[in-house]
Design a protein that fits this description.
By secondary structure, this protein is an alpha/beta fold. It contains 14 helices and 10 strands. It folds into 3 domains: 4-169, Beta Polymerase, domain 2 (2-Layer Sandwich); 173-312, Rossmann fold, CATH 3.40.50.720; 346-399. Helix 4 (101-112) runs antiparallel to helix 13 (317-371) and helix 5 packs antiparallel against helix 6 (144-163).
């Protein structure tokens, strides 16, 4: 492919990979930042964004040398896990998919609209895309071409949610978690205590929904206490230190683990020990909403996996499924607009290049005419030089014109 692309996406998602396979390459914020730094260091000027959620790990690359930059991100991800580096896929195939330009843009719009999520219409993906954008800006890898694509994706996602029923019932992991807890804890005679582990986007959404529905006493625990305190204060919950986790588990009715830790935060040894010291008559209910897994399964507690959590959110699925054709039509219109903008943008780049090279060539010819002694006709010299300069740009303009007519 042309080494300059408006957009390239290299990714793996829940639709192409198992949870174990996703876990093997999942990136937390610091790891995503490290990957961006590697790309920026090796490919200055190339734009890059990392979108790593419980459903996907994707690299969005734009600018010059996109294939090489994608390869760098791909290798950096595997090195973080000390894994063997497989070949970079040449097309959508197997676990990883590689998409270019219009196909990559269409994919990003589908992601932002919730069509590619494990829970159809997932409302949290918009905030996750914005967070990925913020990280890329922070690390100097977000430029004009990614801005155009991401802005379009976020606008299309908002329009889909505003004009269709794709987000009916505010679908997402947080909604599924809250609905499951409502069903499982509805017969509790005492006020349940629900622990939320983490302070990222999923944990924040869970805390907000639990507080709004008044399901019980909500306690937020995070390794960075300040973030737990800020989240708890915002939603009328209680914050506790990470060192207090074991004691809090002894009194809790349920726990939602939603951290980005690369290792389980609730080991079988910890859960077994807590089960033996429990001060409440019911078994501890543990909802694992993290990727990689936050919980090691053990018979002493009731563990609900992320896949099982997602499967709970079915009440309004029919309304959301009926909205899919309308959302897909919006996406196709947006992709067509994107292609027209890109065509115009590229033509303007070529025109600027023509003026720039024309100035440089004029100076070169002037120097040649002053120094030449062979008597070559100046008109022929200028004509041949200008044809040489114009040829590659005329070819590119014809390519854009052909693409616009298709």
């Amino acid at each position: 492919m042309d080494e300059r692309a408006q957009l390239l996406v290299l990714g793996m998602s829940a639709q192409t990979a198992s949870r174990d396979e996703l876990e093997a390459v999942a990136l937390d914020r610091s790891e995503a930042a490290a990957t961006l730094d590697v790309v920026r260091g090796r490919h200055p000027g190339t734009e890059a964004l990392v979108l790593s959620t419980c459903n996907r790990v994707e690299f969005y690359i734009a600018g010059s040398g996109v294939t090489a930059a994608a390869q760098t991100a791909f290798e950096a991800t595997h090195r973080l896990r000390d894994q063997a580096i497989p070949p970079l896929p040449a097309a959508p195939a197997g676990l990883w998919y590689l998409l270019h330009d219009a196909e990559a843009t269409r994919h990003l719009l589908r992601v932002a609209s919730g069509l590619e999520s494990a829970i159809l219409g997932d409302v949290q993906i918009q905030s996750q895309v914005r967070a990925a954008q913020g990280l890329a800006i922070e690390h100097g890898t977000f430029g004009e071409e990614l801005h155009r694509a991401v802005s379009l994706a976020l606008r299309t996602g908002r329009r889909a949610r505003r004009e269709t029923t794709i987000a009916e019932g505010s679908p997402g992991v947080a909604s599924a978690v809250t609905g499951l807890l409502e069903r499982r804890l509805g017969n509790e005679t005492a006020v349940p205590t629900i622990l939320v582990l983490g302070a990222g986007s999923v944990a924040a959404a869970v805390t907000r929904k639990l507080s709004r529905r008044k399901l019980g006493r909500v306690v937020v625990i995070n390794r960075t206490f300040a973030r737990a305190a800020e989240l708890a204060d915002r939603h009328g919950a209680v914050a506790r230190e990470w060192s207090d986790l074991s004691a809090q588990l002894e009194h809790a009715t349920a726990v939602v683990a939603a951290t980005s830790s690369p290792d389980p935060v609730l080991s079988s040894e910890l859960l077994d020990a807590v089960a033996n010291r429990r001060r409440v008559p019911t078994r501890l209910l543990v909802l694992d909403a993290g990727l990689p897994r936050n919980v090691v399964d053990t018979p002493s507690v009731d563990v609900v996996s992320l896949e099982s959590i997602a499967a709970q959110d079915v009440d309004l699925l029919g309304d959301r499924e009926r909205a899919v054709p309308a959302v897909e039509a919006m996406i196709e219109d947006a992709v067509a607009d994107w292609e027209r903008q890109v065509t115009g943008y590229n033509v303007e780049l070529i025109i600027k290049a023509l003026y720039r090279e024309s100035d440089a060539l004029s100076r070169e010819i002037a120097r040649t005419l002053v120094t030449t002694d062979d008597g070559e006709d100046a008109t022929r010299l200028v004509h041949r030089s200008l044809k040489r300069m114009l040829h590659p740009h005329v070819c590119r303009l014809r390519e854009f014109a052909d693409a616009a007519q298709r």
